Every structure is written in structure tokens, then in C-alpha cells.
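User: Can you predict the 3D structure for this chain?
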Amino acid sequence: MRLLDIILALLSLLALSTASLCAQVTFGPSGEEGELLRRQEWLVPSPDTGIAARALLFRPTGAGPFRLAVVAHASTQNGLRRAQMPQPEYRPLAAFLVARGFAVLVPERLGHGATGGRYVEDQGGCDEADYARSGRATAEEIWLALEFLRRQDFIRKDAAIVLGHSAGGWGALALANADPKAIAAITVFAPGRGGHANDEPNRICAKHTLLAAAAEFGRGARIPVTWLVATDDSYFAPAFSKALADAFRGSGGQVDFHILPAVGSEGHWMIEREAGVDAASRELARALNQGKPTATKKP
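Assistant: Here is the predicted structure, written as C-alpha cells:
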């Protein structure tokens, strides 16, 4: 057999093997329920049809149907840090939501940790950062996970909420133009991209581009947003966060902006801590009530 024929045969086998792997991707539960908050590992769709995103699901006791809360995690432009990222849990936040009747999904997006795959949220370099594109990419990943869970029998088809942290919050803002019947409310914790540029606190890449992207997300936004930031956040300080919120609002978005007290040594990570969730509890409860579906009267 000629060398060319061998190479073509090997390429054909590789293509068949890849197609077979793609066909074997399945979604749904991938582990047993735990005792605490019914914690369970799940696989959910991602923009790459050959890769399932790893996720954790927490839910109340009973059969439901429960309202759904999707929590979108923070990210980093550093590839090594993304690869080493542990499965995000946001357990104190999940416990807060489960106690209020929500099933909580925390998916790990492409290019992070065990999910792996290509990092589709890349914003580019500091000078040419495309924050609008990266936000829309994150929004697509949030939506795919949300839509899959909405098809489960134990999940309500309406009035879901999305909560996003940092880059996850930035993607949640890009999702504010979705159907408000599907997503009733969005809560974001210090949303943004490009913070801690070159690992320097209070330095943000291309601030003007970030502000312009926030304004772009505000145009056509139909879902109310609760925007929370800690007073000691060194990624997106309160003054700049308010400027972002004002840009979003100025283009038509509905925003309820709050500055929270300092918790721990860095406010940007407060929502990952129990003390941080406690500090945000009043605003969180108000946001959940804002997104609470109105009961319809029977004829």
C-alpha cells in the first residue's frame, strides 16, 4: 500500500472515531445524589456538540417542579489557570436558593477545568479586547444549559433566574434580551471582563470598550437586572461598576444597583463565601421576589 493510501486510511479511521465519540455524548445525571442539598453531577450541552459541559445540580426535597436558577461562574484569560480551575460550586449561594425552592445548576463552561475544550469566550488582547463578543459567547453557554434543564420534568418551564459572577455576570448581562417568560430576573455580582489586567488590582483593560459593550447589552434588554458589587472589589470597583450599570441603563436596560459591605480580603470573591451571601441576602431576596411569577386567577 502506498504511503498516501495509508495516510488517507488513517485519516478516515480518525474521522470515524471522532464521529463515534461525538455520537456518544450524552446529557443528564452522571452521578448519584448526595445527602447535602441533593448535590449531583450532571452533563449539559455546550456550543461544541462533541463536548458535554460538567455541571453540579442542587435541589430541594420533593419531585418539583422547581423554579430553575443557573449560576454562571467567573473566568480568567490565563489558560493555565482555566485548565486548573476546580468545578465551581457556589455552595453557600446554592443553599440560599434551594432553601427558597429553587433547583440550582452550576455549569462549568468550555475551556475550563474538567469540561475542557476550546475557550470560546476569549476577549482578545488588552488593546483590541472585544467584550461584546466574549459576553455573547458566555450568554450562549448559559442559555444552552438553561434550556436543557427546562426540559426536565422536575423543572418549571417558566420564571427561571440567572445569577452571574464576574465574567459569568458579564455573560448574564448579554442574556438580558432573552424572553422574560423564560428568564424572569438576572442578578450579577461585579460583572465585567478585563479586570486585574496583568494581575494588577484596580487596572482594567480598555475601559471605554467595556462601557460601550455594556451599553450594547442594554439595548433591547427585557429582563430586570440586580447589580451587586462589594465596596472593596479591586477588579471592578464600585465607581466603575456604577458607570457600567449606568451605561447599561442608559441604553434601555432596567438595573437595580447596590454596593455591599466588605467581606473577607477581596470583595470580588464575596459571593463564593457564606459570609458574602449573608451580606447580600437582603438584595438577593428582593431580586428573587422581583422575579417571582404572578399567580394567575382561575376563571
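Strands lie at 28-29, 40-44, 53-58, 67-72, 102-107, 160-165, 183-189, 225-230, 255-260. The two ends are 78 Å apart (CA to CA).
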